[in-house]
Amino acid sequence: MYLTQPLHRLARQTPDRIAAVDAGRRLTWRALEARVAAFAGALRSRGLEPGDRVAMLARNGTDFLVYILGTFWAGGVINPVNLRWTGGEIGYSLENCQTRFLIHDPEFAGLLPAIRAAAPGLVHVVETGAALDGWIDAADPVEDALRRGDDLAAILYTGGTTGFPKGVMLSHTNLASSAFGSIAARQGPAGTRYLHTAPLFHIGALSGLFVTLLSDVENHFLPAFDPLAVLESIARERIVELFLVPTMIRMVIDHPRFAEFDTTSVRGIRYGASSIDGALLDRAMEAFPNAGFIQAYGMTELSPTATVLGTADHGAEARANGRLRSAGRATMVTEVRIVGPDDTELPRGQVGEIVARGPTVMLGYWQMPEATAEALRGGWMHTGDLGVMDADGYVTVVDRLKDMIITGGENVYSAEVESALATHPAVANVAVVAVPDAKWGERVHAVIVPRPGETPCPDVLTAHCRASLAGFKIPRSFAFVDALPLSAAGKILKNVLRDAARETNTGDTP
Predict the structure, then answer these.
(1) CA 457 to chain centre
(2) What is the mean pLDDT for each group of 10 consecutive residues in the chain (510 residues)?
């Protein structure tokens, strides 16, 4: 499989249909193919060799789509850049994998001195807008290089908040297999107009793009997530399907103008990237009654999808048997199991590490053979997530291994405590972390974002938790904040919360 195949097919079958839309441009499949071939020609005329890396530091838009497909067409490897990194961090990632080409939005020009200082191997830098348009228009189109199969397609850097990020190497087969697995597990019709809101440097958004390309879908792009812009786009463009992480779902349905917009066109909402609490999911399903909900679980190293909870698993029966809170079952191209510390498979119902294997598993970490061997030991990708599998293969993710709290010798899964707190009417958002405790080793600490106009009391929240949690799981300390720190992909940065809590922690149980 080669990832440019959908473009070849659709440019021939439906050349005059709309392929991609952003605020400034609408491209048909014919026009997209021509722009991609010319972008590839510009790269080759400047010396791109098969397998060379091409980076993009930009907001979502049609240029990002052209960059992805044009790099593949030229025979290169995409290396999209995390917009929240510093210039030094960006430069590290570029130099680490010897990236020579960088496309960037004008707003990031101020980072270039630091990027160049950290990435002396960077040769060609082009700004989007008039410069990129001229670069493309002046180039002769070239034939597709047709890199495919196990050829390297992408290097996606993970981490960067502590230590050095790792470059995850994904092949054409990896990314295509994940997309096919997601399509097969859709359990409902494909949307005809898909809204891309999450940043395309993130694997969750990137995988959604490959799903849409393989599904003959009209792609609409927002430069960045904004709840009002999402609502406006849904109403104006009659969006049928979109991907939102849980924090984005919360921001959309909580927007004070939500009721003003016609959202009845939405037939599918994909969610994932982090766990969702039951109260939020219930509210989302009520807010979008026409939509089928689909949860995907995975990670960058799995390209990314391992399991899917499809639309059929979001009904009354799933609610009754508890499967609505699971992450679903392995896709048609993936094997998943739960293992103990010795990597032997555990009986159903026991908590252990989630591991997976199949054609979606990464090629490895760029120039990190030891880390690759550790992650892929025994032929299985070790996710670092704790989960449990039921008799029918449904996997429930209970926590990250690093986020599990051990208090007084008992294991506490932060997601369970977060779900309990999220049902309190005064709580808008919550994250639970461990802090050191002189008596218990670690204690459960909850960071709460109150709803507007509410001032939740720790004693009231503690009493609320007692109704559904064992005593050792109840938070022993609370912090109240205006907002939780988020990564560019919308994930809560628990390392930031842990650091803040430890700075003010005395080590004594209150």
Answers:
(1) 34
(2) 96 97 96 98 98 98 98 98 88 96 97 96 97 97 97 87 77 97 73 90 93 94 96 97 88 95 95 73 92 91 95 80 87 96 95 96 96 96 93 89 76 83 91 86 92 91 88 91 81 84 63
Cis check: omega of the bond before 304, within 30 degrees of 0: yes
Instruction: Identify whether the C-beta of residue 359 lies closer than 8 Å to the C-beta of residue 174.
Output: yes
What domains can you pick out in the chain, each with its CATH number? 5-148 (3.40.50.980), 176-401 (3.40.50.12780), 404-503 (3.30.300.30)
Q: How far is CA 369 from CA 150, 167, 268, 300, 377, in A?
A: 18, 12, 40, 17, 12
> Which of 268, 233, 225, 267 is CA-nearest to residue 250?
225
Indicate the residue type of 197: T
Which two tokens mark 292?
Answer: 């089928």
Asked if 303 and 170 count as a contact pair (C-beta separation under 8 A), the reply is yes
Q: What is the DSSP string of 345-405?
A: BPPTT--EEEEEESTTS-SEETT-HHHHHHHTGGG-EEEEEEEEE-TT--EEEEEEGGG-E
What is the DSSP-derived secondary structure letter of residue 124? E
- In angstroms, the CA 323 to CA 390 distance is 9
Find tokens 């399509």 and name the residue: 183
Q: What is the pTM of this model?
A: 0.84
How distant, in Å, are the alpha carbons of 20, 239, 434 from that of 59? 15, 20, 35
How many angstroms separate the CA atoms of 191 and 239, rounded?
8
